[in-house]
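Hi V.,

You were right to ask for the full record rather than a summary. Here it is.
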Amino acid sequence: MQRGKQLGFTLIELMITVAIIGILAAVALPSYNQYIVRANRSAAQSFMFSVANKQEQYMLDARRYAGGGTALADLSMSVPADVSSKYAITVTCTMPTATGNCTALAGIPAYLVTGTPIGAQLAGDARCATLTLNHLGTKTKSGTASAVSDCW
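Predicted structure:
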């Protein structure tokens, strides 16, 4: 009895294909997750820089920085949805007045914009964690990264 030509894959071919796909997924998935974390961090940083720019404009117009719980509203800003789902953005003063506006610290008005990761971003971004930007443009991070430049 003569056998005809067999069509399809053998079991070993199928197992090799599955192994190759598994190896590729094991390498690609962590890289993709880190890419997403960095992209979310970049979006938060961009918004924080926008807040700092608006603060400087507000300072020129009002001779003080906006501060307190209404700082973003005073600056006519709201946190974009793509940022607010990953970071809690706050604007604080060194010395807020009763109305929440920033007063001088040793004669210098000061503010601090803080981006605190929330949810999955918090779990995935231990290297940088909380990001801050102050009135002098000084950037900080609270994570395990060795240098601020690794996060900013």
